[in-house]
Amino acid sequence: MTYNVELTKKTFTLNTGDKIPAIGLGTWQSPRDVVAEAVKHALLVGYRHIDTALAYGNEAEIGKGIKESGVPRSEIWLTTKLDNTWHHRVMEGIDTSLKNLGTDYVDLYLMHWPSSTDPSDTSKHLPDWNFIKTWAEMEKIPKSKAHNIGVANFGKRNLKRLLNSSSCQIIPAVNQIELHPSHPSPNLVAYCKEQGIHSTGYSCLGSTNSPLYKDPTLLLIADKRMKTPQQILLAWGIHKGWSVIPKSVTKERIEKNFGLDGWELTPREVEQINNLTDRFKVCTDDWLPVKVFFDDDDDDDD
């Protein structure tokens, strides 16, 4: 066993040369009345990567937690996202998020979904807009406001559409997608890697009341290593080459999720987790006006 492993200090180098911390704090569904304290605690524990979004409705509280932590802004990787109804108002969107967060810049600004939703009727897609036009507008954001730009929830089909478009001048630095052993998307992750796009895994623990927490193989590994199932899942994700952003507002869980130093999974343990057969997906696209996930998104020949 290797005992000098420090996954909490590990970073991944993006195609811009910037380094994103391997583990961050996710804040999707984190209530506004507790998320500021959660962010503050995470930063004091040692986290240096915070992930949020305009759609989460908690950017102001995230900014409050960062400020109250006393950790210098320059030491924190901060990601936020452009909401679907703001696709045709990219500059207004980034400025709104920066104001909410109380910061001059974000380290990463993502297009949250490849859906240009009509703000006057969210059951409809804007008739004269699409995510390719949105990306062209995102490319115009000054680097002083967003050091890196990327996408989220892009499968291979939509990524290929974007990268093959004549207007695409900048390859996304990151694609933030659902990644866990029951939704590992190996072909999508491989395609991103081929294109120089880093993958960040959301719902990396399988989300609330995850079925993974009851998986006998995972529980056996966790028991043997005297770790939590969550710690095993996070170490597995980082080993696979993506950054992970576990969500919690509970101080004890925030601390335990960060307990990734001084040990590592063996190749056999990694393979055992790779071979878990149960499949489920936390996030679907049935609430969007357009389909963004396709059955062939993780096939080789789409």
Reconstruct the topology from this structure.
Elements: E1 11-13, E2 19-21, E3 25-26, H1 32-45, E4 49-51, H2 59-69, E5 77-82, H3 90-101, E6 108-111, H4 131-138, E7 149-152, H5 156-163, E8 174-178, H6 186-194, E9 198-202, H7 216-225, H8 229-240, E10 243-244, H9 251-257, H10 267-274
Parallel strand pairs: 3-4, 4-5, 5-6, 6-7, 7-8, 8-9, 9-10
Antiparallel strand pairs: 1-2
What does this structure look like?
The protein has 302 residues and is α/β, with parallel strands linked by helices. Helix content is 33%, strand content 12%. The protein contains ten helices and ten strands. The chain has helices at residues 32-45, 59-69, 90-101, 131-138, 156-163, 186-194, 216-225, 229-240, 251-257, 267-274; strands spanning 11-13, 19-21, 25-26, 49-51, 77-82, 108-111, 149-152, 174-178, 198-202, 243-244. The protein has an eight-stranded parallel β-sheet, with helices on one face. The chain has a two-stranded antiparallel ribbon with strand order 1-2. Strand 5, helix 3 and strand 6 (108-111) form a beta-alpha-beta unit. Helix 1 runs parallel beside helix 2 (59-69) and helix 2 (59-69) packs across helix 3. The longest helix is centred in the N-terminal third of the chain and has 14 residues, at 32-45.
Short description:
The protein is α/β, with parallel strands linked by helices and 302 residues long. 33% of the residues lie in helices and 12% in strands. The radius of gyration is 19 Å and the shape is globular.
